[in-house]
Amino acid sequence: MTPDKETAIDKIHRFQRFGSILGLERMNELLELLERPQDDLRVIHVAGTNGKGSCCRYIYSVLCAAGYKTGIYISPFIETFNERIEISGKKISDEELSAYTERVLEAVKKITDMGHDSPTEFEVITAIAMLYYKEQHCDYVVLEVGLGGRGDSTNVCEHPLMTVITSISMDHTDRLGNTIEEIAEEKAGIIKQGCPVVTSVSDERALQVIRKTAGDHNSPVFETSGINAQIEHKGPDGSRFDVIIDGEKFSSVEISMAGRHQIENAVTAMCAIKIMQEAGVLSLSEKALYEGLKSAVQPGRMETFILKDNTRVIIDGAHNPDGARALADFICEEFPHKKILAVTGILADKDVEGILSQFTRITKDFVVTEPDNPRRMDAAELALKLKEKKCICKEAPDIRKACNLASGMADRYDLIIFAGSLYMIGKVRTLLRKGEL
């Protein structure tokens, strides 16, 4: 990490003190001073509780395979801050991050000097990304919503090419609402006038909200939950399937991301791409489609590593009940009757009971740690919850120590899983990638 990058990130992190505040007033004021870079971007906007990151990756990878200069904006990052802002496989450099941060902070100073509310950290980062994508002359930008939709800072893009809403379930209830309908209303807040909407939502309550919002905006809705892919192969290395989308058959489509839910995410991405092609806002070959889908990867999502003793490790950011269910379904289907150790750390403001009810389908053997986040649940408290479910637990609040503990027990297990929070997975992935486990 260079000194410039340290300085830029430190300056950005100062805005953490303003918290996470939904609403577009501060964001719009900031972007006005930057001459509204978002208005020059051709955006595919993606929201959802689970699956939005993977769907973004599929669309992004296909556009890159087609030769388009494509940006992707994600949150949170897994290992390094620069992952959040990327163009055609290349993350923003330390020098670029420093330069664009200074320009955005100059605009922020003008706002605060006028006595107006300061933008939040996420708003500053989003403004940096918007300005960067514009000045790098991106052909397309895939924007992942940070939180919710309606009041998320990415929602300043008034004329996206495509809106995608993946699954909707109970998460961030303190911010988005206490019912599926309320959460769906927030997610559907990214729908714009006349912009096509593709959704993989299957919950009828959420679908009714999306349909009504789309109708109010004269936006056509394309639902993918009824599209059934015929699976030819499925395993830890990914899947191969046939699917018919709007009368067109796609045969032997290969994806490298594991899990049945990733087939659903890929089909959603394919539907969005096909609609953009039919609308004439995108042109690509079938070869680019197939290559892009196969090469798409999402670090930290059901990702496999092999330890020095050949023990298989799977890391997954599952941090809500639906994500945990997808992980449990995958493990129970692909690794039946295997002896499994799970290492977990969870944020205290999550549905901890809902997550643990899925994890305990996988195994009763746990190492409990704490994510690298102030909102983390105390390891002792989490261990107590697991012991109440008749689980065997070892505690190691420090993530590196938890990894070493699990590694030392590897000879007793066929598989080790790390899951529960992206803020834990990032640290684990770094250790695995460097061969330190």
Q: Please report the distance between the alpha carbons of the first and last residues.
A: 22 Å
Query: Roughly what percent helix?
Result: 40-55%
Given the C-alpha coordinates, what overall shape results?
A: globular
Number of strand elements = 17
Low-confidence stretches: none
Strand proportion, as a percent range, falls in: 15-25%
Number of continuous helical runs: 15
What summary fits the major beta sheet? 8 strands, mixed
User: Averaged pLDDT, please?
Assistant: 94
Secondary structure class reads alpha/beta
Q: How would you write the strand order of the largest sheet?
A: 4-3-2-5-1-6-7-8
> Cα-atom Rg, whole angstroms?
21 Å
Short characterization:
The protein is α/β, with parallel strands linked by helices and 437 residues long. It has helices at 3-13, 25-33, 52-65, 94-113, 121-135, 173-176, 180-187, 204-216, 260-278, 286-295, 321-334, 352-362, 379-388, 399-408, 422-433; strands at residues 43-47, 70-73, 85-87, 90-91, 140-144, 162-165, 197-199, 221-223, 230-235, 238-245, 248-255, 303-306, 312-316, 340-344, 365-368, 392-395, 415-419.
Give a written overview of the molecule.
With about 425 residues, the chain is of the alpha/beta class. About 40% of the residues lie in helices and about 20% in strands. The protein is built from 15 helices and 17 strands. It has helices spanning about 5-15, 25-35, 50-65, 95-115, 120-135, 175, 180-185, 205-215, 260-280, 285-295, 320-335, 350-360, 380-390, 400-410, 420-435, and strands at about 45, 70-75, 85, 90, 140-145, 160-165, 195-200, 220-225, 230-235, 240-245, 250-255, 305, 310-315, 340-345, 365-370, 390-395, 415-420. The strands form 3 sheets. An 8-stranded mixed beta sheet has the order 4-3-2-5-1-6-7-8, sandwiched between helices. The chain has a 6-stranded mixed beta sheet with strand order 12-13-17-14-15-16, with helices on both faces. Helix 12 (about 350-360) links the parallel strand 14 and strand 15 (about 365-370). The longest helix has 20 residues, at about 95-115. It is globular and about 60 Å long.
